[in-house]
Amino acid sequence: MEQKTPEGLFQIDCGDIYLQEFSIEDANHIHRISNQPEIAHYLPDWKSTVEQRGEWLTHYEIPANKSFLEAAANTGNVGDHVLKMGVFRKDTKELIGWCCTGIKEELPAPNREIMYAISIEHQGNGYATKASIGLIEYLFTQTNVDLLNAVALIDNDSSIKVIEKCGFTYQGQMKIDGEPYLHYRLNKSEYERSAKR
Fold first, then answer.
1. CATH class of the 2-196 domain in this structure
2. Do the beta carbons of residue 132 and residue 149 sit within 8 Å?
3. In the chain, where are the structural domains located?
4. CA distance 128 to 113
5. pTM of the complete model
6. pLDDT digit string, tens, across residues 102-157
7. CB 136 within 8 A of CB 186
8. How far is CA 13 from the centre of its chain?
9. Is residue 152 within 8 Å of 181, Cβ to Cβ?
10. Cβ contacts of residue 134 below 8 Å, gap of 6+?
11. Cβ neighbours for 175, distance < 8 A, ≥ 6 positions apart
12. Residue 133 host element (H or E)
């Protein structure tokens, strides 16, 4: 279920966690998580200084989120827009990771993907799966997205488990920036069939 916070931030309820669009207050938490060695190994592009993260949030990520959410609310057609949501624990309101969707140029069209990361202290609790399912449901029910991709480095067993639990179908191995990835896809009709079961 989608809703807005009193501050006007978009949220998706995912049980004991919720997704919420990034705000400038998230900069320190995103920085801390993205610099954890286990996260940086799989998502090196997310590494930053606190200052860089603040700049990226202010000038790119927050405005991009607003554009995505506006397009979704007005027409459902999200085009090439990007949405970056923080993953928060309901009991503590702590940002523990993120779950995002955008266009992955290296993939064959249609090439919208979802991706996620959970802080090392909170891994193993099913949060990445819950967050991903929440975002998938939102995309398939509130936007014109019909197909989603997910990729994982071949040694990223925990990410592969999340992708498979979310119902994605294995497409094969591919190289991105010289690294071997496993490629998965999930289409809306498959998702709707499994949701009815």
1. alpha beta
2. no
3. 2-196
4. 15
5. 0.94
6. 999 999 999 999 999 999 999 999 999 999 999 999 999 999 999 999 999 999 99
7. yes
8. 14
9. yes
10. 12, 13, 14, 18, 19, 99
11. 181
12. helix 127-142
